[in-house]
Amino acid sequence: MQLSTKHLLGIKNLTTEDISLILSTSQQFKEVLQRPVKKVPSLREVTVVNLFYENSTRTRISFELAEKRLSADIINFTAAASSAAKGETLLDTVNNILSMKVDLVVMRHSASGAPHFLAEHIPAAIVNAGDGINEHPTQALLDAFSIQEKTGSLAGRKVALIGDIMHSRVAQSNIYLLKKMGASVMVCGPPTLIPKHISQALGVDVSYNLRETLEWCDVANVLRIQLERQNQVLFSSLREYNLAYGIGKELLDSLHKEVVIMHPGPINRGVELDSDVADSKQSIILQQVENGVAVRMAVLYLLSGRSVAN
Amino acid sequence: MQVIVNTKKVYDTLDQLAAAIAAANPDFSSTVMVGIQQGGALVSQYLYELLLKNNPHASSLEHGKLDITFYRDDVRNKILAPDPMHLPFSIEGKTVILVDDVLFTGRTIKAALDSLFDYGRPERVQLCVLVDRKEHRQFPIQPDYTGITIPSNRTDKLKMVITQDNEPQVVLFIP
To answer: Where residue B119 sits, what CATH number does that domain have?
Structure first.
């Protein structure tokens, strides 16, 4: 069994079989990660370059750990500390790295579509680790894996995405994935942070009322307010945002049911999520991080085949 | 597809293997049995049940499944989806009876040993196979318990399968 694609550019182009294959393979890697020796030799002859044109803590460390657990050789590239700062173009940088015989490229970039551009120009397999406001496929896969692990299945599950939908690649990838796998999705946030035609375009329900959304959903995936991508004022203040859309313990306790709380990190504590919720038993935020390594191992493993890569 | 070993013969061979394992292991208290996915896991399930049925002292024997997909030496020529693993016990200091359906080049067993040692350091590993295709071995690996030795061509594919009537058979796939 193989993926239908040579690259992982986004969830949009994956089939449901691809998603199921990645999730079931992730389960096997999760098992590997619980052993005394948390490493397998599968990618022993593979060289991976981590190309990070945008800041990242979790995703970069998670990919790096996944690569190490698969026994791959790794090159880390951070744009700020490289010749990109001297004006080298993306394609030149990558071609230079590729001439050192690299098999897989993991890439994060602030421009939407950057990994797609690369996929058209170079022979290595590309994994999108987040591109602008487009997609963050491995985050959606690890979110799905965590939902499946916590609640048993994706099909029929009611998942709410709460917060800054407009600037969130995590939201977009999650919506594609959850819809493909048969879950219902509702997005919730201030009208200024929800794209106007999202309901028609992506087939999700829209709510501007947090309580109503939480009463409906089984799982609430709370997104970060992306201050760095907003070049105009879309809500009056963080304090006001917290009053209308911040999730606190009191609100959750008043629901008379247990909503699973997720967050892709980094959390703005006291803005979208209060500390007592982020650290509560309902929250699976740290499991998401743990599962991230297994899911990324699965993606890298499935994309590493010789027949596929070259 | 051609049946090489019929169901009756498979059952007889399993009986004989279980008896040999019981005879060689008077004490099962620090012994575990691990089947290699997929055929070996089936064989080891049968053997485990036989051992439990016929030997009161086998009740402490533990049983698991090992998947070697990530350890194959040709892993990237053909990306395969892994099968479930199930080793809910420690193998540290134990005697491991490794079980496979067909022993051929020895590459699978080599991968299984690599994988096994990432779970801990067993005291000894014994190999039990239902079918041995002895003349094609590429590594210095020999079974401790052999069911049937079957002469075969290099390109043949032999495998234990479960029929629609839920009975085991060893079949030959001619490519």
So the answer is: 3.40.50.2020
Contact status, residue A113 vs residue A119, Cβ threshold 8 Å: no
Considering CB atoms only, which of B76, B114, B118 is closest to A306? B76
Q: What is the ipTM of this complex?
A: 0.79
Contact across the interface for A40 and B118, Cβ inside 8 Å: yes
Tens digits of residue pLDDT in A258-304: 999 999 988 999 999 999 999 999 999 999 999 999 999 999 999 99
Query: pLDDT tens for residues B40-86?
Result: 999 999 999 999 999 988 889 999 999 999 998 887 778 888 888 88
Residue of A nearest to B74 (CA): A42
Count up the domains in chain B and report the number. Answer: 1
How confident is the model at residue A307, as a pLDDT?
Answer: 45
Instruction: Kindly state the percentage of chain A with pLDDT values over 70.
Output: 96
In order of start, what are the domains of chain A with their CATH numbers? 16-135+292-309 (3.40.50.1370), 137-289 (3.40.50.1370)
State mean pLDDT over B147-156: 92
Q: B119 vs A40: CB contact, 8 Å cut-off?
A: no
Q: Which of B70, B81, B117 minimises the CB distance to A24?
A: B81
Q: Do B77 and A46 touch (CB under 8 A)?
A: no
Rounded to the nearest angstrom, the minimum Cα separation between A99 and chain B is 21
